[in-house]
Specification:
It contains three helices and five strands, in the order H-H-E-E-E-H-E-E. By secondary structure, it is an alpha+beta fold. It has two domains: about 70 residues; about 90 residues, Ribosomal protein S6/Translation elongation factor EF1B (Alpha-Beta Plaits, 2-Layer Sandwich). Strand 4 and strand 5 form a beta hairpin. Helix 2 packs across helix 3. About 15% of the residues are buried.
Length: about 180
C-alpha cells in the first residue's frame, strides 16, 4: 500500500500542529510561572527596605544590650567576699543604732538566671535594738548604697521577736 503525497502532508501538518500545541502549552505555562515569580520578586522588593530597617534596628538594640551587659558585668564582682559585706553590715548597723549579735555566711553557690550565672552568698544576720531601728536597718540593706550595684542584695527572710531580728539575705556577684 502506497500512501499518497497528500496523506503525508496531512500527517506532517497534524504532527506539526500537535508539536506546536505542546510547545504553546509549555510556553504559556512558563509565562505564568514567570509572572508569578515576578510578582513574588516585586513583593519581596517591597518588603526589603522595611526588613533592612528592622534588621538595623535589631542590630542597634543588640549592640546596646551587649554594651549594657558588659557594663553590668563590670559592675558586679566576680565573687562575693563575705568580709567586704561584714564591714558594710556593721557600718549600716552602727548608722541604724542596732547591734549585730551574729553573722553567718554560707559559701558562694552558683545560680543561673537565663544565660547569666551569679555567685550567690547567703548571710544570716541577727541584730538587736528598738523595733524602729531594726526596721531602719532592714530598709537600709534594701535601699542603701552598699547593697545596690555594683553588687545586689536581696532580703529573703525576716523574723523578729521583741528586740531582736534574724535577717537572711542573698548577695549576688556576677560569675564569668
Amino acid at each position: 500500500m502506497k500512501v499518497s503525497k497528500k496523506v503525508w502532508i496531512i500527517v506532517g501538518i497534524g504532527i506539526f500542529a500537535v508539536v506546536l500545541g505542546i510547545l504553546y502549552m509549555f510556553y504559556f505555562r512558563e509565562v505564568g510561572e514567570r509572572e508569578q515569580l515576578s510578582d513574588r520578586l516585586e513583593a519581596a522588593q517591597t518588603l526589603l527596605p522595611g526588613l533592612t530597617a528592622t534588621r538595623e534596628e535589631l542590630e542597634d538594640r543588640l549592640a546596646q544590650a551587649t554594651s549594657s551587659l558588659n557594663k553590668n558585668q563590670a559592675e558586679f564582682p566576680e565573687s562575693v567576699e563575705s568580709i567586704e559585706y561584714d564591714d558594710d553590715l556593721f557600718e549600716i548597723a552602727d548608722d541604724c543604732n542596732v547591734d549585730i549579735t551574729s553573722i553567718t555566711a554560707s559559701p558562694p553557690k552558683n545560680k543561673k538566671v537565663g544565660a547569666v550565672t551569679y555567685s550567690v552568698s547567703s548571710f544570716t544576720v541577727v541584730i538587736s535594738g528598738d523595733i524602729d531601728d531594726i526596721l531602719e536597718f532592714i530598709y537600709a540593706i534594701r535601699t542603701g548604697d552598699d547593697f545596690q550595684l555594683p553588687w545586689s542584695a536581696e532580703v529573703t527572710v525576716v523574723s523578729t521577736s521583741m528586740k531582736t531580728a534574724t535577717i537572711r539575705l542573698d548577695i549576688y556577684g556576677y560569675k564569668r
